[in-house]
Write a structure and sequence with these properties.
The complex is a heterodimer of chains A (446) and B (337).
Chain A (H helix, E strand, L loop, with lengths): L3 H7 L6 E5 L5 E5 L5 H13 L13 E2 L3 H9 L2 E6 L2 E6 L28 H11 L5 E8 L5 E8 L5 H13 L8 H8 L11 E3 L2 H9 L3 E5 L5 E4 L3 H4 L10 H30 L7 H10 L7 H21 L2 H21 L5 H15 L4 H21 L1 H17 L1 E2 L2 E2 L21 H6 L1
Antiparallel strand pairs in A: 1-2, 2-4, 3-5, 4-5, 6-7, 7-9, 8-10, 9-10, 11-12
Helix pairs in contact in A: 1-3, 4-7, 9-13, 9-14, 9-15, 11-12, 11-13, 11-14, 14-15
Chain B lengths: L1 H11 L14 E12 L2 E9 L5 E8 L2 H11 L3 E3 L5 E5 H6 L2 H9 L9 E4 L4 H10 L4 H15 L7 H8 L7 E6 L6 E9 L2 E5 L2 H11 L5 E7 L2 E17 L2 E12 L5 H22 L6 H8 L1 H7 L3 H4 L5 E9 L5
Parallel strand pairs in B: 1-4, 1-5, 5-6, 6-7, 12-13
Antiparallel strand pairs in B: 1-2, 2-3, 7-8, 8-9, 10-11, 11-12
Helix pairs in contact in B: 4-7, 8-9, 10-11
Classes of the chains: A alpha+beta (446), B alpha/beta (337).
Chain lengths: 446, 337
């Protein structure tokens, strides 16, 4: 027996709440704006007025609600409710205003597929189901957020993914105590085993093919309603260093590019710090001609090496930040002004040396080569620490912060998997498909 | 993690004395250092570069090398940095008075490299040569490095690094040698090896004797050799030579086996005789001046430690009396003929 008063009380002072008497005490309830009004009038109002009972409305999603709370939740989700003599039928008449599937903005691939996840979880699940046409693709749904009641789906391949992973994900989702999941980082914080780490412990992707590939490899994927990304668990360094392009070009070329990417990781981290340490403490380690070139380039610069490096790093960060928040056209203008001011004018005014500019630019470019932006952000913080340590303690400092970084990376775990696996850990090192790209044909033959 | 962090932070304190912080553009790099002696006084001459174009020469009079280095640092507007030092030239006067002090200072210096090559100047002072190179705008270090490389390939002399020199000076069974330069800045050439008795110059070896010493030490890689062929001369290239020095029944035997290439028709026996002649000449010279610059003493010490121990302190007196025989066998290397 469902009491209308309770529902009316819950929606008091809610402008969008609509109630209409149709006939024979049949009451129609819905939230204006959340429902498709044309669908309501065509599939609900008209059949009821023509004598159809509330149980016979031509909507396959129609079902009987058991209590008031269920009716309230259904109305908030964009469903319409028909009440008659204490019975209630709810039917899905949601108006879905969704973005169409478009190419991914951040993880583009020249040869790969061009679709990306959108904000609608149902669409995202459909995209995955289109990639993996199997009944073994299972989903476990959860609601997260005390206010938002955001739907989260744990997607996995039955028999491939470990049951422990799924149950652990369920446990974590049940333990989430937050009002709403409106940005990916909120969920990321709960999924991370170490909160105060600068490195991501989940892999976020916009690409359904990447998510599908990880599902095949036994990982699980979390889809969140309202977020155009999928969380892949567990995440390792090797995964964060892979791009969708790796599997869509020749594997030999892709292996070389991947090795280059690992080299760039070291360049990003250590290049600026080593430059500062060598030019400040260990000039004898520089080849004579290079030492003379650097010395000549710095003639007239009034600041110490560390100062000009830090200033240039800060300016690059400002440019990146400004470029991100500008529209595409203004962003280009910012880049041009930045390149002219930071680059040419600063050198001509002898505020920085060309060598320092090259060092910072190479480090910055190397950071852009990292496939995962969140991982790159963590590396950027360590780059700053290494540079400062290089300025204070020379190469000792660089090595020391490098060791701290190694300790942090080695101690990170993502859902029970070491972050550095399979490069470090108790199992045998699997170089293939970590540092290199294995042809898919060989992988399957094996 | 906390303990590790605490340990790491504490270990930072250990490194506080390790670094000397200086901006690279505030430095003047000493590329070449010359040391001359005039009686009790030393003259230190430094060829400095602070950029690709700027070169200068600083010269100071002093009583010790350490004092001279300090005076050099005071004279320069920029910080004088010895970490890029790539050549040390020692005047004949320094070599005659003893190179122990110079070697001792350089080996203890935190800035000088262990692979630093040292050379002796026979015909002029280091100060005049370095000053002349600046005047003539000749990159002296590059030129000398190329000459040493060339000498290494031709086995006339060879590069002697600071660490090797220091090791030899401390070894009572093996004398130190250094390559020496002849001529002035316009006709600079490597003359061969200068041999030392303890740390004082004993003699300059001729080019043939220097090659012979390289054979005795087994450091011949390649050598261009001119041998008599009838009424004319033939040129051959020694491309491989292996030397074995043995000690048996109170006598040393030197056995050299090697290959040579030729364009003419030089006889293998003639080549062997020529090589043997050079080695015998060197042995004769070394025994005459009483300096074992080869490795006879070392071989004796390894083969017969008891005898080695007996002669260790007066090896220079015993060495001239040691019987030494030389056997050379050179073969022609034929490429696909």
């Amino acid at each position: 027996m469902i009491r209308c008063e309770m529902i009316f009380h819950a929606f008091a002072q809610v402008d969008e709440f609509r109630k209409r008497y149709l006939r024979d005490n049949i009451l129609l309830l819905y939230m204006d704006g959340l429902v498709d009004t044309a669908l309501v009038s065509r599939q609900i109002e008209e059949p009821i007025r023509q004598g159809c009972s509330v149980y016979d409305i031509p909507l396959c999603t129609a079902r009987e609600a058991e209590n008031e709370q269920e009716v309230i939740a259904a109305l908030l989700r964009g469903k319409a409710a028909l009440l008659q003599n204490g019975a209630c039928v709810v039917a899905d008449v949601r108006k879905t205003e969704k973005r169409s599937v478009s190419p991914p903005e951040e993880e583009s691939a020249v040869n790969g597929s061009k679709d990306s996840f959108v904000e609608e979880m149902k669409t995202n699940l459909t995209l995955l189901r289109k990639k993996l046409v199997t009944a073994k693709l299972k989903t476990v749904r959860k609601q997260v957020g005390t206010v938002s009641h955001t739907a989260v789906a744990i997607v996995f391949l039955e028999g491939v993914a470990s049951a422990r992973l799924v149950s652990e994900a369920e446990k974590i989702l049940s333990s989430v105590r937050t009002e709403a999941i409106l940005t990916p980082d909120i969920l990321e914080q709960y999924l991370s085993s170490r909160l105060y780490s600068v490195f991501p412990q989940t892999l976020q992707t916009q690409r359904p093919d990447k998510a599908a590939q990880n599902l095949i490899k036994g990982r699980i994927v979390l889809l969140v309603d309202g977020l155009p990304v999928a969380f892949v668990l567990p995440a390792t360094l090797a995964q964060l260093m892979q791009t969708p392009e790796d599997d869509s070009v020749n594997f030999i070329f892709a292996s070389l590019v991947r090795l280059l990417r690992y080299t760039l990781l070291f360049v990003e981290l250590f290049f600026a710090g080593t430059y500062v340490a060598l030019t400040t403490f260990h000039v004898e380690m520089l080849p004579e001609k290079l030492a003379l070139s650097i010395s000549q380039a710095r003639q007239g610069v009034p600041f110490p090496v560390i100062f000009e490096i830090l200033v240039m790093m800060a300016l690059f960060e400002v440019l990146i930040e400004a470029g991100m928040h500008m529209s595409q056209n203004t962003g280009q203008a910012v880049s041009i002004v930045g390149a002219l001011v930071v680059g040419e004018a600063a050198i001509e005014a002898d505020l920085v040396s060309p060598a320092a500019l090259i060092v910072v630019a190479v480090s910055a470019i190397a950071s852009f080569a990292m496939p995962d932006q969140m991982f790159s952000n963590g590396l950027r913080l360590y780059r700053l620490a290494i540079t400062l340590a290089g300025a204070v303690l020379g190469l000792f400092g660089v090595v020391m912060v490098g060791l701290v970084l190694m300790v942090e990376l080695a101690s990170l775990e993502s859902f029970g998997t070491p972050f550095l696996a399979p490069l470090a850990g108790v199992s045998k090192v699997r170089w293939k498909d970590t540092l290199l790209v294995v042809p898919s044909k060989k992988e399957h033959e094996k | 993690m906390r303990r590790l962090s605490a340990l790491l932070l504490m270990s930072v304190l250990l490194f506080t004395g390790c670094g000397k912080k200086e901006q690279i553009d505030q430095m003047s790099f000493v590329k070449i250092l010359g040391i001359d002696r005039n009686g009790e006084a030393l003259t230190l001459t430094a060829g400095l570069r602070s950029s690709r174009e700027d070169s200068e020469v600083l010269s100071v009079k002093c009583r010790t090398v350490a004092e001279g280095v300090r005076l050099l640092r005071l004279q320069s507007q920029k910080s004088v940095f010895f970490g890029q030092l790539s050549m040390v030239l020692l005047g004949k006067s320094v070599a005659e008075a003893g190179i122990g002090e110079v070697t001792d200072y350089l080996i203890r210096s935190p800035e000088a490299r262990f692979d630093l090559p040292l050379l002796i100047l026979r015909d002029q002072t280091a100060e005049s040569l370095i000053a002349a190179s600046l005047r003539e705008k000749i990159l002296l270090t590059e030129k000398l490095a190329q000459m040493l490389k060339c000498a290494d390939e031709n086995s006339v002399s060879g590069k002697v690094e600071l660490s090797v020199l220091a090791e030899r000076l401390a070894d009572p069974l093996r004398a130190a040698v250094l390559p020496f330069l002849t001529g002035d800045i316009t006709a600079l050439a490597l003359g061969g090896f200068a041999v030392f008795k303890e740390d004082r110059l004993a003699s300059f070896l001729t080019p043939d004797e220097s090659v012979g010493l390289n054979y005795l030490n087994g450091t011949v890689g390649r050598q261009i050799l001119v041998v008599p062929e009838g009424k004319t001369n033939a040129t051959v290239l020694i491309c491989k030579a292996q030397t074995r020095v043995n000690y048996r029944n109170g006598a040393f035997s030197v056995t050299v086996a090697g290959d040579f290439e030729q364009d003419g028709t030089a006889d293998a026996a003639a080549v062997s005789t020529a090589v043997g002649g050079m080695i015998e000449q060197t042995v004769k010279k070394l025994q005459h001046i009483g300096v074992d610059a080869a490795r006879f003493g070392t071989v004796l010490n390894i083969t017969s430690p008891s005898e080695g121990k007996q002669v260790k302190q007066n090896w220079n007196e015993c060495f001239p009396r040691a019987p030494i025989t030389v056997t050379v066998t050179m073969k022609e290397k034929k490429h696909g003929r």
